[in-house]
Specification:
alpha/beta; Rossmann fold; SIR2/SIRT2 'Small Domain'; binds zinc ion; Ssirtuin_cat_dom; Sirtuin; NAD+ binding
Amino acid sequence: MEANDAVLSALASEIGEAERAVALTGAGVSVPSGIPPFRGAPSDDGPDPVWESHDPADFHRRRFDADPEGFWTDRLALRETMYGGGVEPNAAHEALAALEARGHLDTLLTQNVDGLHAAAGSDAVVELHGTSARVVCDRCGATGSAGPVRERVRDGERPPTCDCGGVLKPDVVLFGEPLPDEAFDRAQTAARRCDVFLAVGSSLTVRPAALLPEVAAESGATLAVCNLDATDYSERADYDLRADATEALPALAAALDG
Ligand SMILES: [Zn+2]
């Protein structure tokens, strides 16, 4: 971390002086909570990527439409792989919640659907890909808590249905589905209005994550990237931290307090 100390302290000063700072988080923030990433190379010291053991095609919108019963069976198996041991927010989630609570973070954009930012106490969260903590009725649009619905699925109700008779779907963006306009609009507005844009734990290759730092930079924001590996934005970022988010973000929060 030593090489990053000067970068962290300079970034902390900018965030401290910023009118609005926005953070964007990706899978790298959830991996330290034991949640495997979807893609990437199998690693020795972490969980294997999800798509090593599950087929993305099983979670496509077409599959949900054609075979909702099979979709939900596979969905429970996927959930077991991802959250099997029970997952808790880690130091990175907590540091971001602390930054918001102290007025240093305006909006938190996330690609993650695990709900851990909310669990850590972050309020101003825009979930770009939805959240697996909720279900939505495919017919009437009613939403509800996912936990009880998953229990019904385990008890044999496949697919689970709404009072209106429509099929319930996890409230996440499936392959083949567009991003929710409202979330994307909020994310773009936040990126356009911020002075500092901090991308954490994302390779910034998948849209819309690939697009938002661009929107922020074009509007004159300072661009900061914190990721273990280089990203598509590392070259042009004003601050490029090659660090574990669970170390860098608490250090950033501490520097802002100091
Ligand atoms: Zn309904």
